[in-house]
Design goal:
Blueprint: E1 2-8, E2 12-19, E3 24-31, E4 43-44, H1 46-62, E5 70-77, E6 82-85, E7 95-96, H2 104-114, H3 116-123, H4 132-142, H5 144-149, E8 152-155, H6 156-165, E9 169-171, H7 172-176, E10 181-182, E11 187-188, H8 190-194, E12 205-207, E13 211-215, H9 218-224, E14 231-237, H10 238-245, E15 253-258, E16 262-268, H11 275-279, E17 285-286, E18 293-299, H12 302-312, H13 315-324, H14 328-335, E19 344-346, E20 364-366, H15 374-398, E21 405-409, H16 416-426, E22 430-433, H17 438-450, E23 464-468, H18 475-491, H19 493-501
Parallel strand pairs: 1-5, 5-14, 9-12, 15-21, 21-22
Antiparallel strand pairs: 1-2, 2-3, 4-7, 6-8, 10-11, 13-14, 15-16, 16-18, 17-18, 19-20, 22-23
Helix pairs in contact: 1-6, 10-17, 12-15, 13-14, 15-16
Length: about 500
């Protein structure tokens, strides 16, 4: 029997089938388009997402159904984004993704009224426009007809589970990303939900990560080529699920997800409400592993910047890669300078991640000269994305998270060149994994746990391949450039605000 992990991301959805021993069996992937209906808005059409998810499940299952029939499907997804559902099951609105900034005007008034520190003590999150609570407030005011007619609001993991089973459940980690979940009581917070005018019966039931939602409906099983009695589990927010998949859901080790968003996900064995974490906007909420908690530092526009480079600056490399059937990102990375760049990129091509949580983020290329080459700019892109993670690691270290190793996952982890650059900048060993799509692996593990086939506390499928150690000769060079990076960001606060005010 096989287990499948599904990862619903911002730009695409993956499905990977694994044997009970963790052996990779098959996979499928499909992209979908982001929508930008007006400045600051970033949406996904949930119908297209669910259709794509069903297609990749069918494609991955088709390759194994004769030899390893599917027993359980685990679903992980991006956080924060929700879809309004009518009582007949229709999707009646698009999903605002995490970086959608339209709800920014609601953050300060709500924080002043409820209290930012009070909210942190309940939810483990500091108020920011990315969290679902502020998107709910925007929807209520600007699309009242959708708000009133919605029977349920479902997040992407539970939306796919609903499509497969007809049942509505979410897990602790996804609920936490709404900023309406009590991380101590592990339940929806009535006092916070009251500020939105939202009742718990309009949200999915909350269960532990890996909890079974139900079995795939017969008609869906037939359409997707699945057998009977295939269980479906909601597994969680993609970051902690990926950490489990790569064996980094333990203290002293963290996952480093290198994809559309870059994120370091660390684990701790107790709930820490740290002033240092709160000041730096670093969250704390339940991990997917029982009795464990997670905090995360992230760069909101990490891989998206590289995609922008692919589509706008590295057209020659992208076209050559397409002709040769190669990955265009590999071409871009190899075209970058082999030495540290003398120019600095701020990779904030939209709202920033931690520690700033700045909805007015703006990308900056600083230090250009007539002598600056294209290869140096490409190198600056790779470095700038990583400097943002270095900033977060410094804060985690001061808060007591002593990380001895990062485990790299996601598409970006395939490039040895970039892994070495990252290790040099971060000053910490960086290990790549046999299966880079660890979120799918973690979801499959959780599905197996929910189905009673294995125990995630004693079972790991993680298999390290290679560790990249920081090279001492680059340590001082990158420390000096990192100091410039921080100074550039600090000096442009007023300019970012002025630029934002120019937008229509």
């Amino acid at each position: 029997m096989s287990l499948m992990g599904v990862d619903i991301g911002i730009t695409g959805v993956k499905a990977v089938a694994f044997g009970e021993d963790g052996n990779f069996l098959s996979s499928a992937y499909e992209e979908y388009l982001l929508l930008f209906p007006f400045p600051g808005a970033r949406e996904l059409d949930p119908r297209r997402v669910i259709e794509a998810a069903c297609r990749v499940i069918e494609a991955a299952e088709c390759k194994v159904k004769d030899s390893d029939p599917m027993k359980a499907i685990g679903i992980a997804s991006q956080g924060e984004a929700f879809t309004p559902i009518a009582s007949d099951g229709r999707m009646i609105g698009n999903a605002m993704i995490f970086s959608d900034a339209r709800a920014e005007p609601y953050v300060r008034p709500w924080s002043e009224s409820f209290g930012a520190e009070r909210a942190y003590r309940i939810t483990g999150h500091i108020p920011y426009s990315m969290y679902s609570i502020f998107k709910f407030l925007w929807l209520k005011d600007h699309q009242p007809e959708v708000w009133e007619s919605a029977w349920k609001f479902l997040f992407f993991e539970d939306l796919l589970a609903f499509a497969l089973t007809g049942e509505t459940k979410t897990d602790y980690t996804m609920a936490a990303r709404t900023m309406m979940f009590d991380v101590t009581k592990k339940a929806w917070s009535p006092e916070i939900m009251a500020t939105v005018g939202l009742s718990a019966d309009r949200l999915p039931e909350v269960v532990p990560s890996g909890g079974i939602v139900g079995t795939v409906k017969p008609e869906m099983a037939s359409a997707l080529g699945l057998g009977s009695e295939v269980s479906v589990s909601v597994c969680g927010h993609d970051q902690p699920v990926g950490a489990l998949g790569c064996g980094a859901a333990v203290p002293g080790r963290a996952s480093y997800s290198i994809g559309t968003v870059e994120c370091v996900c660390a684990a701790v064995d107790r709930l820490i409400m740290s002033p240092e974490l709160m000041k730096a906007n670093l969250v704390i909420y339940p991990h997917v592993v029982p009795d464990t908690y997670t905090t995360q530092g992230f760069n909101a526009t990490g891989g998206s910047v590289l995609k922008w480079v692919r589509d706008n600056l590295a057209l020659e490399e992208a076209e050559e890669a397409r002709r040769n059937g190669e990955d265009p990102y590999d071409r871009i990375i190899e075209a970058a300078s082999t030495e540290p760049a003398d120019v600095i990129l701020l990779p904030h091509f939209g709202p920033t991640g931690t520690p700033h949580l700045d909805a007015l983020g703006a990308g900056v290329l600083f230090g250009l000269k007539l002598s600056t080459t294209r290869s140096e700019i490409l190198r600056a892109v790779l470095e700038g994305i990583t400097y943002e993670i270095k900033w977060n690691l410094a804060i985690l270290g001061k808060a007591g998270f002593r990380l001895e190793e990062l485990r790299a996952i996601g598409g970006g982890a395939r490039s040895e060149t970039w892994m070495q650059i990252k290790a040099d900048i971060l000053g910490i060993p960086l290990t790549t994994m046999r299966v880079t799509e660890s979120t799918c692996m973690g979801a499959a593990l959780l599905a197996g746990h929910g189905a009673g086939m294995l125990d995630i506390r004693t079972t790991s499928w993680a298999e390290p391949i290679k560790t990249f150690h920081p090279r001492k000769e680059y340590a001082s060079t990158y420390e000096e450039r990192f100091a410039v990076y921080r100074e550039v960001y600090a000096s442009l606060g007023k300019a970012r605000e002025m630029l934002a005010n120019l937008q229509p």
